[in-house]
Every structure is written in structure tokens, then in C-alpha cells.
Specification:
The chain is 52% helix and 11% strand. With 331 residues, it is an alpha/beta fold.
Length: 331
Amino acid sequence: MKIAVVGTGYVGLVAGTCFADTGHSVICVDVDAAKVETLRKGQTPIYEPGLEELLARNIKAERLSFTTDLVSSVHASEVVFIAVGTPQGEDGNADLRVAMHVAGQIADAAKKFTVVVNKSTVPVGTASRMQAEINSRTQVPIEVVSNPEFLKEGAAIDDFLRPDRIVIGATSEKAKAIMGELYAPFVRTESPIYFMDPRSAELTKYAANAMLATRISFMNEVAMLCEKVGADVDAVRKAMGSDKRIGHPFLFPGVGYGGSCFPKDVKALVATARNQGLDFSLLAAVDAVNDRQKRLLGQKAKAHFEAKGELQRFSSIKSYERALHGPTLPR
Ligand SMILES: NC(=O)c1ccc[n+]([C@@H]2O[C@H](COP(=O)([O-])OP(=O)(O)OC[C@H]3O[C@@H](n4cnc5c(N)ncnc54)[C@H](O)[C@@H]3O)[C@@H](O)[C@H]2O)c1
């Protein structure tokens, strides 16, 4: 199949490279010309185990190429993935400006039936908004599909090649068949492909990240209680996690969750609920606990140095010193 992937960040680059490795012909598009040049040489701007090797192999086999030219990439492709950033915008809502802009560009360029696949993490209703925007710009039949990504940075290739599951939100049988064919090589080990409507697919991604974040904040609350009552949180965690209904992953207390996805996705889901007149109070608390947890580290560090009479050394940790007194926290 001929595929274009717009946005060669963590998600786009890994997805494009892995699709090429299963024999598809993939063009990766990015606005960052320097990044495109680097990738053409087979060098990756990110470190992911196995990525450089796959990149070199597929460039050599002429299955994988890089360009800044979106129009010719769309002309050459049956499926176009959107994998651009969806950062936190105002009020916690995801900022969809780049994703919507790219959808418009694809609509203007397409000359034949094209499946436009949203791989970026986008709020419920985005596929429908994109479809309306595309339909307003072209008569060419285009179907917007939601296909959220679940890879983890640091294990991205392995996660993509051997996913726990694939989630595809599509309306027509034609788009479902194309997506199923595309992913068939990744689900040979019987990992399921869940076909659903686009709204459910969009929500699945946020709900999954929110659930994981909830476990982390929950354990941080348990850890705080342990400290007060003289219990050992590590012993509690291990024994809790042994219950098959609970499990061990994401039960580690610590400085709270961070990274490029959890903080913005939790806030975006709270905002989505708010937009619908709902108060997702549990998730708002998860976010608040996470914020407190980061401050707690600074407070503990300060108390530690104070007790040793070395407060001067703590004061040299400028960002945390500022964070302890200011509204924003370092990530
Ligand atoms: N990083 C992760 O671990 C991860 C995991 C799952 C889902 N996601 C989601 O996937 C999406 C992409 O995340 P990422 O980490 O790959 O982002 P990223 O910021 O690493 O990459 C985005 C890329 O898009 C390019 N770009 C920006 N505007 C463009 C345009 N108009 N046309 C073409 N390219 C453009 C940028 O130059 C950049 O290379 C986000 O919605 C994110 O929430 C990320």
C-alpha cells in the first residue's frame, strides 16, 4: 500500500518506519526541512532502540522516503496519516490548529479516494470536525479515520511492532478493510484490532492515559498516608499489585507522572468533560495530586538540606526553589 505520514516526531517516524518495514511504500512529510535532511541520511533526531537500523534498512530498500512536499505525498498515497503535535492549549483543551490545518491541506491536495488517519491524540469529535472541514473544501471522497497511538517513548518500536491492541474508529466498510490490511502484520500474534466508531476510538486513548495517571496519583496518596501512619508503601504496593484484579504496573509512588502525554491528556479529558457540562472531579483530583507531588519533592529536598544546615545548597536548585513559591512547576 502507498502511505504518507504527516509529522515525523515520535509517533509519525516510528509508525512510518514500521509500516515500511512490513513492505508498504511510505513517504514521511514534515515542515522541518533540517529534520527531513537528517532523516534522509538515515540519522534519527530521537533515540529509540532499533529505530536507526530499521530506518537504514527501509531507506536502502526504497520503501521509506522523507520530504517537505505534502501535496505530492498526498497524490502518491492511498492512506495519509496525521501525526502532528496536539499540545495543551487554553483551558487545558488540546490545541488542534496544526492537525486541522494539515487536514485542510490534504483535502486541497487529494485527487482520488483517500483515507485520512488521525494518529495524533485528539479530543472526541475531532474526526467529525475534520470530516466536515474536508467536505467543505473538496468533492473528492475522503474518509477520516481515528487510529490513536499507544506507544511509549523508549520502547516505541517494540510497542508499535507488537502492540497490545490496535484501535480503529472508522465508519465505512471500505476504510475498515484498508486499515485492517495495513495492520495485519502487527497482529499475527492474535493481539486484537478493535473496530469502533471514531468518537469511541478518540475517547479510548484519553481514557487509557487517564486510567494510568489515576493509578499513579492514587499510589502517591497511599504513599502519603503510609508516611503519616508509619506503614511501608513498598510493601503495600507489592501486596496490592499481586491481586490479579489490580496488577503491578503503574503502582509506583514517586514524583508524579510527566512526559509529553499524560499531563496534557489528563487536562484535555477534564476539559472535554467540562465542555459537555460535566465535572470529571476524579480526574481533576488526579491532576491536582500530581501537581502537589512535584511540589512535595521540592519541599522534601528543602527540608533535607535545612536539617543538615545546608540550605544554601538547596537554594542553588533554582528551578525548584522558584517552583516552590510560584504557580508553575518544572516538568
Ligand atoms: N510521544 C509519544 O509518546 C506519543 C504517544 C502516543 C501518542 N502521541 C500523540 O501523537 C501526536 C504526535 O506526538 P509526537 O510526540 O510524535 O509529536 P512531536 O512533537 O515529536 O512531532 C510532531 C512533528 O510534526 C511536525 N509538524 C508540525 N507541523 C507540521 C505540519 N504543518 N506539517 C507537517 N509536519 C508538521 C513537527 O515538525 C514534528 O516533527 C500527539 O498528538 C501526541 O499526543 C504521542
